[in-house]
Automatic annotation (TrEMBL):
The keyword Zinc does not apply. Keywords: Membrane, Transmembrane, Transmembrane helix. The chain crosses the membrane at residues 34-54, 66-84, 90-110, 117-134, 140-163, 175-196, 202-222, 234-253, 259-276. Its main location: membrane. Pfam families: EamA (PF00892). This is DMT family transporter. GO terms for cellular component: membrane. InterPro entries: AA-Vitamin_Transporters (IPR050638), EamA_dom (IPR000620), EmrE-like (IPR037185). It is found in: Membrane. It comes from Thalassobius vesicularis. It is a multi-pass membrane protein. Residues 3-133, 148-276 form the EamA domain.
Length: 279
């Protein structure tokens, strides 16, 4: 039960990142590269402070560090660029659909045991997402470039999660990844073909909240849960994030769900429950 509750808390944090990022870009007027750079710095400083407090320092080395840093950068900036035009819920659907494929591929390549009930849960949850995304002829076309950015972000997050399973100390590993990625992110921000200007206060606060709390602390918790979850269950659990993100869009971005959403939400969460019950 503790594993289920902590996993649910982490998924809420992941969904909050979609809502916060979309709010920062669409409502606060933040540009995506600045949002991503501030998010990295805020996450790095928060995790460094926690590592100093509880571990006495930050160990920047470790297995998979290069892969962790590069995949984190791909996720952070792909995520921000995608949300220039994608709604919070739609972006989360594309993101974690890609994560699902990436992590199950990792589980298969690693020859991880995937019980039949877990495969059934994955198929049920993925089917709910596919039905929710299926075009009805009533909505606008999905922006291809932004959707492609979110696919890259999903690959980045999937690889980041797989690498995290080898982290001996979740807090230290997450702090090191953020601290090493932050200066690289700053360089990318400087090289971006956008005017460098003072960011809006509200957008900066949203980026700090996303970096320090729902990213930094959320990812540290995620790293600590990954060894117990395994790649298969971790991938399926993340399929609940789009549903939570759409609910967040309803509360904070005035995205009103319909009966189609409610049915799909039930299917997705049912599939996640099946997967988490698999021994």
């Amino acid at each position: 039960m503790k594993l289920v509750l902590l996993t649910a808390l982490t998924m809420i944090a992941f969904a909050a990142n979609s809502v916060l990022n979309r709010m920062g870009l669409s409502q606060a007027g933040m540009d995506p590269m600045t949002f991503g750079a501030i998010r990295l710095v805020a996450g790095g400083l928060t995790l460094a402070a926690l590592s100093l407090l509880f571990r006495g320092g930050v160990a920047l080395g470790g297995p998979g560090r290069v892969a962790g840093v590069l995949s984190l950068l791909l996720y952070i900036f792909g995520f921000s660029l995608a949300y220039m035009r994608l709604d919070a819920g739609l972006g989360a659907l594309i993101l974690f659909g890609t994560v699902q494929i990436t992590m199950f591929a990792g589980a298969v390549l690693a020859r991880e045991s995937l019980p039949p009930l877990r495969w059934l849960g994955a198929l049920v949850a993925f089917g709910g997402l596919a039905w929710l995304l299926w075009p009805t002829g009533q909505g606008a076309a999905v922006p291809v470039a932004n959707a492609a950015m979110m696919v890259l972000a999903g690959i980045g997050w999937g690889v980041y999660s797989l690498v995290g399973r080898r982290a001996g100390d979740a807090l230290q590993a997450t702090a090191a990844n953020f601290l090493l990625a932050a200066p690289l992110g700053f360089i990318l921000w400087l090289l971006a073909p956008v005017p460098i200007q003072s960011p809006p206060l509200m957008g900066s606060l949203l980026a700090v909240l996303s970096g320090a709390v729902t990213s930094g602390l959320g990812y540290a918790l995620w790293y600590s849960l990954l060894p117990a979850l395994g790649a298969g269950r971790a991938a399926v659990a993340q399929l609940s994030v789009p549903v939570i993100a759409i609910a967040g869009g309803l509360l904070f971005l005035a995205e009103v769900p319909d009966l189609r959403f409610l049915i799909a939400a039930g299917v997705v969460l049912g599939g996640v429950a099946l997967s988490l019950r698999a021994k």
